[in-house]
Design goal:
46% of the residues lie in helices and 19% in strands. It is of the alpha+beta class and 262 residues long. An eight-stranded mixed beta sheet has the order 2-3-4-1-5-8-7-6, with helices on both faces. Strand 6 and strand 7 form a beta hairpin.
Length: 262
């Protein structure tokens, strides 16, 4: 069996090669930007973006890579490509960005990766869904596990919104009665939910739940609402197959914060 240090050394070598490939790709994108500028070609070309996303998903499938992961990766690359094209027209120089800042990073800062999804409580699920679809171009995506009434997941590109109506559960109806419609919590993806929770607990962060684990491999926990920050946060780690947001995990927070009966 290969030595752990040898395997990590090989990973470091591949990461270096990956950075070199990304640098080469971005250099080519700068050349593309120059050609566009000389031919009055629009910076953003939707057909090309869609083609890149679709073909890279297929290439990922053929290589045995999860296509949703591959799409996320290439959307990040496409975003950076567009930023470079636009930033190239700015008069100010790019800022210096050192590899290390010298500051000690928190546990959450170490393992947080992105906003996974945003849960929104709505008074009328059908109206809210139709509005986001017709006015903003969101589309329905499947949730993990069986469909449940009163809850719907919408996506546009790499952005996921989970809409929850009062018919989803008594706890949701209670929440809407006391708080009204709006963002209920923001779920941050972390590398390891148990580690993230332990770090926040050590820091004295008020937490509502232990790590909740469902059959699809979602590990999730919730922090208490922070009125001073105007936000409630959830933290999720995907340890199973990459599937949609789990309805049970979403509804668990509504249960945890249900207003006690007088």
């Amino acid at each position: 069996m290969a030595d752990l240090d040898d395997l990590r050394s090989r990973i470091d070598q591949l990461d270096g090669a990956l950075i070199a490939i990304v640098a080469e790709r971005l250099a080519l994108c700068r050349q593309v930007a120059a050609v566009k500028a000389g031919s009055d070609t629009p910076v953003i070309q939707p057909a090309r973006v869609r083609d890149v996303v679709v073909t890279r998903r297929q290439q990922a499938i053929e290589a045995g890579i999860d296509p949703d992961f591959a799409e996320q990766l290439f959307r990040v690359l496409l975003t950076e490509t567009h930023r470079i094209e636009v930033a190239g027209h700015r008069p100010d120089a790019a800022p210096e960005k050192p590899a290390t800042t010298g500051e000690v990073r928190s546990g959450l800062d170490t393992v947080a990766t992105r906003v996974d999804h945003i849960v929104i409580a709505v008074d009328d699920l059908d109206v809210a869904t139709t509005t986001l679809q017709s006015r903003f171009g969101f589309r329905n995506v499947a949730m993990a596990g069986p469909a449940k009434p009163g809850i719907c997941t919408l996506a546009a590109g790499g952005v996921t919104l989970v809409l929850v109506g009062q018919e989803a559960s008594p706890s949701v109806a209670d929440y809407l009665e006391h708080h009204g419609s709006g963002v209920q919590h923001v779920a941050i993806e972390v590398l390891n939910a148990g580690f993230a929770r332990a770090c926040l607990a050590d820091a004295g962060t008020p937490l509502l739940t232990e790590v909740l684990v469902d059959d699809d491999g979602h590990e999730q926990f919730f922090a208490a609402s922070e009125p001073a920050a105007g936000i409630q946060l959830g933290f999720i780690s995907r340890t199973g197959h990459r599937v949609g947001v789990g309805a049970d995990n979403v509804l668990a927070l509504f249960d945890a914060i249900q207003t006690p009966s007088p």
